[in-house]
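hey m, so remember when u said the tokens were messed up on ur end? i reran from scratch. heres the input so u can diff it against urs
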Amino acid sequence: MKKMNTLAILVATSLAMLGAASAAQAGEIKGKVSVQGLKSAEHIAVYVDEIPGKAFPAPAQHVLIDQLKMAFIPKVTVVLKGTTVDFLNSDPVGHNVYWPSMSGNKKLSHNLGTWPKGEKKAYQFNDLGVAPLLCNVHPEMNGYVVVVGTPYFAVTGKDGSFTIKDVPAGTYTLKTWSEDGKPTSQSITVGAGAAEVALTVKK
């Protein structure tokens, strides 16, 4: 019995060491997006395109997009494929949510309907691409859901800066998407610590 207990402890210790080593190999991607011909470097999606041979299960936790003061908040939301998004109406008027396509594919259009203040509706995004969010009650409102294939993504702040955390070590393609700019891609190698990157998005 004592030998079995000792063996169990050794196995548990080895697994813990392997887990720690794996965690130590994870790093982060830090960078800044500069723009040419665009009004702002804010609200630009930056994401690791894919990790060959690895699939990611849909997260159990929902993501929230609010409709407040006649705007979608946040304006740009990036989610992993399979994520369920809750659309909340926080305005004292009825709001609608629909998207006419997913990255131009009109077959993937959807209309969630219209609902009053305090209520929300959920939708699971199972197709990669960009859903341009609109409200048929208030045509001035717009937002975007960017559906990607990995959980390693970020949206730039006002100065164009971003951080993507807990990225496993390896070499990947880093991509961007923005409302008015052309998509960009750049190879990046991640190790322990931070990988610095500078990206430029053009009109």
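this time it looks ok to me. The helical segments are 2-25. if urs says something different then somethings off w ur setup not the seq
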